[in-house]
Amino acid sequence: MDGGMVPIEEDVNTDDGTAVEPRDPLRRCILTGTVQPKDGMIRFVVDPDGVVVPDLEGVLPGRGLWLTAERAVVEKAIARKAFARAARQPVRVESDLADRLAALLVRRCLNLVGLARRAGQAVAGFEKVREALRTGHVGRSGRPAVLLAASDGAADGRAKLRALAGGLPVLEDFEAAALGAALGRDLVVHAVLARGNLANRLQIDAGRYTRMKIMPVGRSPAGQTGLTTDLSDTND
Fold it and tell me: pTM score > 0.90 for this model?
């Protein structure tokens, strides 16, 4: 192919000529031209009305238009009409597409946390999380995979659990009220998910959300609100 360009919807071979595993196919960003795994990108399609629609599940019919999952990339793609060029047709793009993506991603993340709770693959509350990290077991579900710490929780509690977590991924993008709603509590400051598909998907979507969100101007750094424990600690 001229110039070594990579087709948008075709898997890419590695530099040594071996095929990339199907579980980790590569895609080319329609704005930057960079080739990377799908986990760090967002797929879009053009619907029958010519509107660019995000396809976070990667299952909608039509030719996929892939963008690096970063707010600046999405905003530049809109400004530079990258969707129309890649689709080779006139398209309509909502001006608030980046905001909509961030909202969709946070909803997906919290839904995954809720699914993990219902599947018995999550525990909440400082003491329960500390015990899970200490023993290496999340209830009867398996070994810990990812630690959740509310963005508006106190820094000292997060630091104590992070020390126990070792190299475990820590997600700190969600507020205590949102985590609580997902986990069936009023507020949740600390939670941990067991290894499995739900935890894997959460880490992927949380990574996308982190790069798509906007930090409100003047927001206090995490840990300044004084939320030191979960209500689940006192209710259980």
Answer: no
In this structure, are 120 and 165 located in the same domain?
yes
Q: pLDDT by residue (tens digit) across 2-22?
A: 333 344 554 443 233 333 344
In angstroms, the CA 115 to CA 108 distance is 10
**What is d(CA 8, CA 194) in angstroms, rounded to the nearest whole number?**
34
Amino acid residing at 194 = A
Residue 198 contacts by C-beta under 8 Å, 6 or more apart in sequence?
A: 112, 115, 116, 119, 121
User: Which parts of the chain register pLDDT below 50?
Assistant: 1-7, 10-22, 216-236
What's the pLDDT score for residue 9?
52
Pairing state between β 144-149 and 170-171: parallel
Count up the domains in the chain and report the number. Answer: 2
Tokens of 229: 């424990």
Domain containing 191 — which CATH number? 3.30.1330.30
Residues 104, 81: one domain? no
